[in-house]
Design brief:
The chain folds into 2 domains: about 270 residues, CorA soluble domain-like (Beta Polymerase, domain 2); about 55 residues, no CATH class. It is of the alpha+beta class. The protein is built from 8 helices and 7 strands. It is rod-shaped. Strands 2-1-3-7-6-5-4 form a 7-stranded mixed β-sheet, sandwiched between helices. The longest helix has about 60 residues. Helix content is about 60%, strand content about 10%. Keywords: Membrane, Transmembrane, Transmembrane helix. Belongs to the CorA metal ion transporter (MIT) (TC 1.A.35) family.
Length: about 325
């Protein structure tokens, strides 16, 4: 699909189905999952070869930042901004003095915002470089909003981790044997949540790194064609991206801290389990000793002739089990 925009707003594309040439006043050509025919028409219009999706997905720097005779080709991975399907997809920019061509494979609210800005709010899209600035500025704004949402999510996650006490949930009965299972399930959920946030932050980091590179490259390559006021916008963009990169780094450090805290909670739960096993094993030793002692087959054992010898043995076994329990309880192990 082809979307066209000129300095005054959207350009009608209804008459382009028959293979007509693209209008001369179209500055921004937005290709959404383009067909081979659409790519050919854009190449005829701008003189810049439209890369394939595989070419836009290349990871080496020489493939993402290229200079040709007719313009520059830039590509970067960009997050989808959809939290239900958070993934990275390629985004391409083809730029020369008169045109900006964007190549994308998913809907992005940043592009809709730029169209509205040009159509209704008088955004300056008179040149390819200025249209490029509008698009990248909106992408940076969206990434900033996304990082703010992630920061709020990490705050909530921090509260969940450091207030974690599944056994004290409302409605839980004292001595409820399902409490360990609930704690285990809650910790698993926390760990999965931390993992999802880490995965999302890594995708945002890749998007910021890609934007940082293409902004610097575009400014260097288009410097002689920039009008007064364009160069400061490039510098502002670079500073904004750098500040977002620092913010993302702090969020990553916070996430690592929360991961360590979650693993610490898991270790505490494991230690509790081992502590219970230790108490059980220690409590079982004295009764076993008493039972084994009175189970010896010697002929002369005074207790064999006692009327209350059997109750005495049972009482001794019970006392030898209760005393360690009371001791561990006084030490706070139970």
């Amino acid at each position: 699909m082809i979307n066209l925009h000129g300095p005054q707003g959207a350009v009608d594309v209804s008459g382009l189905d028959g293979g007509a040439a693209l209008p001369a006043h179209a500055v921004w050509i937005d290709l959404v999952d383009p067909t081979a025919e659409e790519a050919r028409r854009v190449e005829e219009k701008t003189g810049i070869r439209v890369p394939s999706r595989a070419a836009l997905s290349e990871v080496e720097l020489s493939s993402r930042l290229r200079r040709s005779r007719d313009g520059i080709s830039l590509s970067t991975p960009m997050v989808t901004f959809d939290r239900s399907d958070f993934s990275l997809k390629p985004l391409g920019f083809l730029l020369n003095k008169n045109h900006l061509v964007t190549v994308r494979y998913h809907d992005m609210r940043a592009f809709a915002a730029v169209r509205k800005r040009v159509d209704e709010e008088g955004g300056d899209g008179s040149t390819g470089a200025r249209m490029f600035l509008l698009v990248v500025e909106e992408l940076v704004d969206n990434l900033a909003d996304l990082l703010e949402e992630m920061s709020a999510d990490l705050d909530n996650l921090s509260t969940r981790i450091f207030d974690f006490d599944a056994s004290a949930r409302p409605g839980a009965r004292k001595g409820d044997t399902s409490a360990p299972k609930r704690r285990d399930l809650a910790l698993r959920r926390l760990l999965r949540t931390v993992g999802r946030h880490g995965k999302s932050l890594s995708k945002v980091r890749a998007s910021l790194l890609g934007l940082e590179r293409i902004v610097a490259f575009a400014k260097g390559e288009c410097g002689q064609h920039l009008d007064e006021g364009d160069a400061p916008r490039f510098e502002t963009l670079a500073r904004d991206i750098a500040s977002l990169d620092e913010f993302e780094t702090r969020l990553s450090e916070t996430l690592q801290f929360l991961l360590d805290a979650t693993l610490g909670l898991i270790n505490v739960e494991q230690n509790n389990a081992f502590r219970i096993l230790t108490v059980v094993s220690v409590v079982g030793v004295p009764p076993t000793l008493v039972a084994s002692m009175y189970g010896m087959n010697f002929k002369h054992m005074p207790e064999l002739d006692w009327v209350y010898g059997y109750p005495y043995g049972l009482a001794l076994i019970a006392i030898s089990a209760i005393v360690p329990l009371l001791y561990f309880k006084s030490k706070g192990w139970l």
